[in-house]
Amino acid sequence: MTPFFSLLLAGAHWPARLLACLGAALCLALTFLVCARLPLSQADLPIIVAPLGASAVLVFAVPASPLAQPWSVIGGNVVSALVGVAAYHLIPQTALAAGVAVGGAILAMSLLRCLHPPGGAAALTAVIGSPGIHAAGWTFAFAPVGVNSVALVALGILYHRMTRHSYPHRAAAPGTAPAPGLHAADIDAALADLHETFDIAPEDLDALLTRAEAHAAARRAGSTKTRQPGTPVR
Q1: Between 190 and 106, where is the model more confident?
Q2: Side-chain-facing half-sphere of 4: CA atoms under 13 Å
């Protein structure tokens, strides 16, 4: 039976997870302090928007995720906020405007290759937010949303470099495996068969599978050397 408090993500371990908690706490607080010193166009705009909390989860807990990369965070939040502002002004019915804002944000982020789940919350905030947010109009997408996102990403890059993590993430070289049996086209075909979207870049998946093949080959070679004659291979 899986322990109740076991980590959900593959490759995750507690020291790295605790560093992620510390990084999110420090950098989100610093983002708030930095943005509090910047003049905003409207006095009643929030210093920091709620979707940034979700952005911090991605940037610090899963920095290798394609959804957590700098362009995804900044572009996803800003573009989605712009879509939300447009929906608010063009659609008088709030429920419909909210739905169109989130759906339109997903489409815009997908087209611009900056898919970022908190962007949906940024779009929704532009529709159901305070009167100050509505009065700010298009400005809301850049201040505070854009300013918040840039500050969080900059602090995230600094923190991850201090803790020796790759951010912005760069896929590791696959390396060489003895007689590799998988190719990039095979991985693409398998993903197409599953009809699912996974939170991992194709390059990272290729590197992971290639290294797994190398370990499997080394294990089989070791088993062959140590197996006694007549012992069945398991």
Answers
A1: 106
A2: 0
